[in-house]
Amino acid sequence: MADSTQNGPMPGGAGGGAVQFLMANKLDTAMWISRLFTVYCSALFVLPLLGLHEAASFYQRALLANALTSALRLHQRLPHFQLSRAFLAQALLEDSCHYLLYSLIFVNSYPVTMSIFPVLLFSLLHAATYTKKVLDARSSNSLPFLRNLLEKLSANQQNILKFIACNEIFLMPATVFMLFSGQGSLLQPFIYYRFLTLRYSSRRNPYCRTLFTELRIVVEHLIMKPSCPVFVRRLCLSSISFISRLAPTVA
Questions:
Q1: Which residue in 129, 164, 101, 133 sits closest to 36, CA to CA?
Q2: The predicted structure's pLDDT at residue 14
Q3: What is the pLDDT, as a whole number, of residue 144?
Q4: C-alpha to C-alpha distance for 216 and 218, rounded to whole angstroms
Q5: Count of other CB atoms within 10 angstroms of residue 13
Q6: 21 CB neighbour count, 10 Å cutoff
Q7: What are the mean pLDDT values of the chain's consecutive 10-residue runs (251 residues total)?
Q8: Beta carbons within 8 Å of 129's beta carbon, 6+ residues apart
Q9: Is 178 left (phi over 0), alpha (psi -120 to 50) or beta?
Q10: Based on CB atoms within 10 Å of each CB, which residue in 45, 46, 157, 161 is the most buried?
Q11: Measuring CA to CA, which residue among 104, 99, 97 is closest to residue 185?
Q12: Closest C-alpha among 25, 31, 19, 36 to residue 139
């Protein structure tokens, strides 16, 4: 990897180093392209410039592209597939496996704008990181405007990850609402609950646990005010207790 990220231009023009870097890291490059395609499709769903009918197809394409990216990343993390319980348990610890499951949950469901934001933002963050590596391989001072945009995105990474975690949490009641409104399947809330427990237990991304804790503190602070009706306080405390019992144990 260090050999690929050279600062000076390579023979064959200013882009020679970038091309060499991309060819030397084919799997990472494939994930970069699929992430850029995910961002493109997600943007055209959120902003339906080509019409509402086309927006629904871009929703599916974004989730399928994200599933491809997640599968490639999972293969990169666990290259030797084994049909065993131990391998499955190890795979479920990986964030890429979580979002492979996420894509499969929503790809054939009624399009929900909230469900596309985690896919869009994760793809944007990872694509931005790899784009900086490509720019460094091309030249240390190439495309300063794009570099500034990438730096601003990186500076707001923590806020973006918190926003993603918030989406992950509030999609749980959204799947239940979709079920009762006739836009979701009976299994979707149960499968999504499994996804949410995996995100809560994630070793690499603690933001889901952090958001649950912060939301609990905020709700408890509000309901303990004298102006809060007693039945609302009891309902909220019962809900907090119920959700806490559902939370998985984190090692």
A1: 129
A2: 54
A3: 81
A4: 5
A5: 11
A6: 24
A7: 40 66 89 96 89 85 96 90 85 92 91 93 94 84 84 92 94 90 86 93 89 92 90 91 84 60
A8: 154
A9: alpha
A10: 45
A11: 104
A12: 19
Question: What's the pLDDT at 251?
Answer: 60
Rounded Cα distance, 110 and 88, in Å: 29
User: For residue 8, what is the DSSP state?
Assistant: S
CA–CA dist 50, 241 (Å, integer)? 46
Please indicate, yes or no, whether the overall pTM of this predicted structure exceeds 0.70.
yes
Q: How far is CA 70 from the centre of its chain?
A: 10
Q: Amino acid identity of 184?
A: G
Angle subtended at Cα 159 by Cα 126 and Cα 196, rounded to the nearest 5 degrees: 75
Residue ranges in 47-84 assigned as alpha helix (H): 52-77
Q: What single string gives the DSSP state of each residue in 183-238?
A: SS-SSHHHHHHHHHHHHHT-SS-THHHHHHHHHHHHHHHHHTSTTS-HHHHHHHHH
Each domain of the chain, given as residue ranges in start order, spans: 22-154
Residues 21 and 132 sit within 8 Å (Cβ to Cβ): no
Number of alpha helices (DSSP H) and beta strands (DSSP E) in the chain: 11, 0
Predicted local distance difference test score (pLDDT) of residue 11: 45
